[in-house]
Amino acid sequence: MLQVKRRPRGFRLFAAALGGLLIGTLAAGPAQAEGQARQTGPQLTALSVGQSTVDATSGDATVTVDWHVTDGNAAATDMFGDIAFQQVGADGRLIGAPRTLTFSFEPRWPYQASAVAGTMASADYSHAFPVPRYAARSTARWAVVKVTARDDQGGTFTVERQGLERFHAEFTATHVVDSTGPTYDGLRAVRDQPEYLYNADASVTARYRLNIADAESGFFRGRLVLSGPRGATASGAIRPTRETDGTLRCGDYNSYDSHDVFCTVEVTIPAGAPAGTWSVSRVGLTDASGNVSVVEGLSQDPVHVTQNSSVQASDFALTPAEYNNWNGTAPLTITMKPSGFRDGIASATVLLDGCSGSVTENPVIAPDGSISLRATVPPVYTRRCTVTGIGITDGAGESAAYGTAFHGPVLDLVATQIPDTAAPVVNSASLDVTSVPASTLPRNARLTLDVTSFVGVNGFSLTVYDASGASVNGMSGGVPSVTNGPLELNVPLQQGLAEGEYTVGFTLTDAGGLRAQYGYPGGRSLPVPGGPLLITVTDG
């Protein structure tokens, strides 16, 4: 039989009393801590507006707002805060955009207001708040809906609508009616938006740009919706934010005001969302007065979302593995074998880092089942070319995507430039004159070189030395690339050269940076084929 051991009655009474003491202590703790925070941190103690009604139809009406902030932290020396006004409907619902007034204890830009009296411990603030000219109705009620502040010691406060009711900081304004919502134009995918997105393992992002205009109240916020297969949708918020320099930032772009705003929008398509074509289907925009404009039924700027479940590709190859672009563009070929497709391959896209990719419509399927795509390597300076994305779409609209550019399975397709391992070679060298009268100076002698260079000579320097080995003149620069054959250079002979014998030394540089030096005095270079380059200045 199970027996239960009972505690003595006196112990139960003691435990109950102790529990009551603990409960009372714990219940008092947060209140006590909150009281201490009120004593040591910043607090809003007064708030009022100077007018109960105002006519804003002229566009320059203001309402005086006064407030008082205390701070019990003696170490605090500055404070920063915001006061938000917003329209309030008859049902208490907030309408349109909040209008924010910024303040600091010490005057500083870009804060709009600063303390007009007192110290950090107890300061008065006042500001003429500009009342918006436009609203969705001719009469609107405005109220302070939020006040926040922080001091330079980490103390903060935030008072929301319920806590502000005791101040009755509100007014009624007469407005010019704004009855239309924002408009937009220029909607399209951003320049680097991938055409394919692989979302089997992680969400992917589609990015768009558009210009939004609202001449009256100004643009407040919006939402862009993408629609995909089987009724699936995804959306992204459009919301300008105020920068410290006073401009509005909306995605990647800054605008001077809310009446003409250029925005980028990011839309996240979840991992595993239905594969197929996703397009912009809806744009909804709201202005600062609360007017809404909606454009629906769009089918714009599609992107192919895929998990590579229907169509696949394999046997990827990039040829040649080493390309020669030292003297011009070089072609590359990307091959692969698609499978699981229906009605042929309608389109294939290849993206490359460092090279120019391509889009091939209706690529030919070779007898071995492969398709080929072309790419081009720019001349000279492209040392490495990496395939970053391959996307294919079949005739039935199904697609597959590979590579980091499309967030797909990794590709290992890299081609590199043939290395430059041989410096230029001079086969022969000659001057058009070997003796010049001093009276004919200044002038140029013509140096003709027969050169051989795998990558091409594209730069030179030359120096003229006197009999003692001292430099008396020279020049340098670039030349059109020469791989084989003659290269002509001017040798400057300045006025005032003394009679005597002069030697010419020169350096050739190829496109890969390799150099060959010839004819410099003192054995510091290769000998010139056929002997030193000598010019004699005579007294004639």
Structure, briefly:
The chain is mainly beta and 540 residues long. The chain contains 2 helices and 40 strands.
The gyration radius over C-alpha positions equals: 39 Å
State the total count of DSSP E strands: 40
Please give the largest β-sheet: 10 strands, mixed
Uncertain spans: 1-38
Give a topology summary.
Elements: H1 9-40, E1 42-49, E2 53-55, E3 62-71, E4 79-88, E5 94-104, E6 113-119, E7 122-130, E8 134-135, E9 139-151, E10 156-159, H2 161-164, E11 170-174, E12 176-177, E13 183-189, E14 196-198, E15 204-213, E16 219-227, E17 233-238, E18 241-242, E19 248-250, E20 253-255, E21 260-269, E22 276-287, E23 292-295, E24 300-306, E25 312-319, E26 322-323, E27 330-339, E28 345-353, E29 358-361, E30 371-377, E31 384-394, E32 399-402, E33 414-417, E34 425-431, E35 435-437, E36 443-465, E37 471-493, E38 500-510, E39 515-518, E40 533-538
Parallel strand pairs: 2-11, 5-6, 8-12, 14-24, 26-33, 35-40
Antiparallel strand pairs: 1-3, 3-7, 4-5, 4-9, 6-7, 9-10, 9-11, 13-15, 15-21, 16-17, 16-22, 18-19, 19-20, 22-23, 22-24, 25-27, 27-30, 28-29, 28-31, 31-32, 31-33, 34-36, 36-37, 36-38, 38-39, 38-40
